[in-house]
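Q: Got a minute? One more chain.
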Amino acid sequence: MKPFVSLKKITPDNIEQVLNLKVSKEQEDFVPTTAYALAKAWAYYNTAFPFAIYAGDTLVGFIMMGYYECKKQYTVWYFLIDEHYQHQGYGRAALKLGVQFLVDCFHVDEVYIGVRFGNTVAQKLYASFGFVETGDTTDTGFEMKLVIEEKTENPIVFP
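A: Always. Here it is, folded:
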């Protein structure tokens, strides 16, 4: 049985481990470092919501949701599962928790996510979750959107 996946705040107790999370060499061009993401979280502290992803007591990844003010969109801004814990279902479980966080805290009807061109693994994961391409692109990637059809009665509690 797989350990329970949860999102936890980043604290002095886990910051060093979070900073040491890494993706595989092949994925490095698709995902910024956690240090970069946390610097963005600091700069946008009113609209950035970073979390460590745990499987039981083991840190397995990082996710940061945010509010993109100029587009009036809630997003999954940064998302990674450490190279040692990929292909074990943690990404799907963490993505579900991240989306649920936005639903519970901000009552969103849509969630957006950016995908770098060539990152077919992420694109397939997001599409299998229900995200669809919006047609919006940048120099480096494209946007996908999830329409929230059902909202849960049981909000998720984040420690």
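A: Residues 155-159 have pLDDT under 50 and may be disordered.
Q: Perfect, thanks.
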